Amino acid sequence: MRQGKRKTIWIVLSYVITALAAGAVVCFAVKLGNQGKLDRLEYLIANRFVEEFDETAIEDAAANAMVEALGDRWSHYLTAQQYRDYQAQSENSYVGIGVTVVLTEDGAISISEVVPGAPAQAAGILPGDVLLQVDGVSCQGMTLSQIGELIRGEVGEQMVLTMERAGERVELPVTFAQFDVPVAASAMLEDQIGLVTIENFGSRCAQETAAAIEELLTQGAKALIFDVRNNPGGYRSELVEVLDELLPEGVLFATEDYAGRREEDRSDSACLELPMAVLVNGDSYSAAEFFAAALQEYEAAVVVGSQTCGKGHFQTVYRLPGGAAVSLSIGRYYTPNGVNLEGIGLTPDIPVEVDEQTAAAIAAHQLEVGEDPQLAAAVEALEEKLR
Fold it and tell me: Are 212 and 195 within one domain?
């Protein structure tokens, strides 16, 4: 609590100083003034700590601890680098080479995906290549996060990746560049069922999702599956725009902030009148969950998969001095029927659980329709509606 009166605080610091002849205890009175606990601690470290220290590292650690102490799993402190990464992820535009790597059972680093049009594709890197070295540095025993830090550079920088391909070693120079990552993709399955995979609800989601739907309709799709498994969410505006294309007139989404202000997003009467299904799993977060929930509550789609994560808070990112930021929960999300999913998640209409190995293969987009139990169940459900 704050004190009613301003006080001058005196802290007596006792130092034991050993002299050659005898020991003596010397007391110093340090006048700190009207400072808070953290201010005092910062003063003491800056003026009394005997060794060199990294001021930025201390500030980052202190700020991170403050946010963690809130006990909210959705609020995060972001260092300057983490904030830059967050911005790139939200905008679906990265400086990098454009690969997704996975850790195989034997500990190898394998390339699972290569982004079309990214530097990795231009360099000749292929899915299935095994990463051995980065600029001569061995990748053996590294974690995926360590690999991510190793393959980092600025636009125009070049590095040489040593790969193993079909039992042979190949060295591939690759140049870092800024590139856009596709957000939505379409594929036509059997029985005129179209599949729309939405990676996230960041920038360009609504535009690319609409284009994917239009492409499938042009090809004669009579039913659609939306795959939002492993989708971390994104922008409210992108979510609402996608839902507006799919659902009839009514409430799509609602929010209530820290001050009790409530807002509703509504759709017009135009909608897509096709049988639909939505694929979800435990890594469907935030906007992905509320996308599936809205379609479920309007009875516009059947939800297939496993229980979603249960993220019902929304955050605002505030810039801090030095390039850092804090993503702070400032309100709650609600489904069209007024349900908050925090800590609960969305329950699928057709539950289909998968083992860890299958889940990892789904996340890496490595399975065909018949190998993916959740996708197969969604196809079966739509086939029944089409009969």
Answer: yes
